[in-house]
């Protein structure tokens, strides 16, 4: 009998234009995993609306992210590519799991704590329950593995807790998922403030590189990246700006940081920045060209996301029905 392929679920939210952090921490790694796993790659638009979105921009970004997935090398025929809001089971399962989650565990999420500092009392309730929707996304497909950057590790651990609790209370229902954190590029930092992660909702555009930034903009942003006055290329926490540049290079080239450091003996930050900019441009330029082509072919994109939604819906509904039945809801 043919062994079942292990299942992967992952997604990116269209809350802003995607950064190099989203690419290196998530999408680039998916490309390598698609052969070995049965993959569900989702544009998680319901997560994006946890903060205010301009409707027209949200629509554009949703399709652009789908295009970025494909342009980065995710093959639509081999994987299930879909838009989260097209599969209503995500919202329904999220409610059922909300009723099995605790305020205390959600209040401990560092992303919520960080964001609540920014929004204060007017923070949206959706930002509080966001990790439960994320658990629903993952558990509906019985994902074995969830490739994410380090920033999402805590949310994934909560998904595991929620799955284990449901399994204990109502009998085994969900696969308990594992995080898959990439060896290189798991946390790309802000170019202007390397103590915080590169984020698409950051206000200072010099802090991030967008996947769709033109080459000259990429070069300018890298040349302005904050370093230090030490002047020697070292991979150490005392030089967080330089460490971040090495991490970017290491992630794009797939070479360990120590090897990169060795190759800069006797060289300075100018050479390092030049090489980092060159490597980002050569990695992103072909992707950008394909994205532009795909964005001009809305019929093709529609075909992909409709097919994806049909397939995802079938699997997700099966799990949702199981959940409803175990909880005691009467089947129609
Ligand atoms: N800086 C980063 N380095 C490595 N991985 C990262 N990811 C995000 N930023 C970095 C990974 O990208 C995937 C998708 O993330 P998301 O869009 O769902 O949410 P996020 O983690 O909250 O990303 P942002 O860019 O920081 O969005 P905003 O600013 O809107 O909150 C995840 O796997 C994440 O780990």
From TrEMBL:
GO terms for molecular function: tryptophan-tRNA ligase activity. ATP binds at residues 13-15, 21-22, 149-151, 188, 197-201. InterPro entries: aa-tRNA-synth_I_CS (IPR001412), aa-tRNA-synth_Ic (IPR002305), Trp-tRNA-ligase (IPR002306), Trp-tRNA-ligase_bac-type (IPR024109), Trp-tRNA_synthetase (IPR050203). It is found in: Cytoplasm. L-tryptophan binds at residue 137. It is an enzyme of class 6 (ligase). It catalyses: tRNA(Trp) + L-tryptophan + ATP = L-tryptophyl-tRNA(Trp) + AMP + diphosphate + H(+). NCBIfam families: trpS. Its main location: cytoplasm. Homodimer. CDD domains: TrpRS_core (cd00806). Catalyzes the attachment of tryptophan to tRNA(Trp). Belongs to the class-I aminoacyl-tRNA synthetase family. Keywords: Aminoacyl-tRNA synthetase, ATP-binding, Cytoplasm, Ligase, Nucleotide-binding, Protein biosynthesis. The gene is trpS. This is Tryptophan--tRNA ligase. The lineage of its organism: Bacteria, Bacillati, Bacillota, Clostridia, Eubacteriales. Its EC number is 6.1.1.2. A motif ('KMSKS' region) lies at residues 197-201. A motif ('HIGH' region) lies at residues 14-22.
